[in-house]
Design goal:
mainly beta
Length: 70
């Protein structure tokens, strides 16, 4: 929502990395926490770009291990 994305938008790439699965988004974001990244997405028949900055956060899994998530 902060990047201006709406339901139905299709993410095409993040900083040159092609996005084909939701996991691709997580992978790119986790490798570049707190870095500005170029996001390319499609809305209808138009292609748009935006700049996003994945936030790094820390959480605890069910086993008590701390996990850093970007």
């Amino acid at each position: 929502e902060e990047a201006g994305l709406k339901v139905g938008d299709r993410i095409l790439s993040i900083s040159g990395s092609t996005i084909t699965r939701f996991e691709d988004i997580r992978e790119v974001a986790s490798m570049h926490p707190d870095e500005a990244l170029d996001l390319t997405y499609q809305r209808g028949d138009k292609v748009h770009t935006a700049t996003i900055t994945p936030r790094l956060s820390e959480t605890t899994d069910i086993f008590g291990n701390k996990i850093r998530v970007g």
